[in-house]
Amino acid sequence: MKVRQLVIIPDLPSGSMNSLSAPAPPVARIDPCSDPPDRADRSPRVVIPDRTEPGIPDFFDAATRTVMERFHEQCRIEGVPLYPEELIEWGLFESFLSAHVAPDSRREIPCMFLWAEWVRFSFPRMRTFPSLIREKEFRTLLREIFGTEIAMDDQRGLTFPGIRYISNGRSA
Asked: What is the rounded CA–CA span in Å between residue 150 and residue 142?
């Protein structure tokens, strides 16, 4: 960080002024100066952690890397570029699953209910409708992650058997 000094230059002699003009105010000039001693030692040191695989943000923990790594690998193989917004949406999806969805062999949840909860969870955080994980992708991912198939219930429509929704510590 450079420290600058303010130097005031005195007025010009009175003989060099125009008679119609007022006396010139003092002129300020900023001179560059070197850093004061011991000032350079106070700057915070930035340590960049080593990444195990490029392209996956560090904020994803090890438990959520399996789906992310598969998605990243598939995009890399197909030559599809990844954008930061997509990675943010993937991170939110992983957060949603870990906080609100759990396996349960005795329960089932309607597909549209779980989809609506995903949209309600992601919309305020992304300030837009999910663009990467739409309804069809959502169903496919849940089937892959939880190893379940979609069942038909006469009263509630399509359901995910073996999955429960957790809301504020309670399950639906």
From this structure: 10
Please give the CATH number for the structural domain made up of 63-171.
Answer: 1.10.10.10
DSSP the chain: --EEEEEEEPPPPGGGS-TTSPPPPPEEEEEEEPPPTTSGGGSPPP-PPPPSSTTS-TTS-GGGHHHHHHHHHHHHHHTPPP-HHHHHHHHHHHHHHHHHEEEEEEEEEEHHHHHHHHHHHHHHHHSS--SSS-HHHHHHHHHHHHT---EEETTTEEEEEEEEEEETTEE-
**% of the chain residues with pLDDT over 90:** 4
Overall pTM > 0.85: no
Tokens for 34? Answer: 């070197």
Domain boundaries, the chain: 63-171
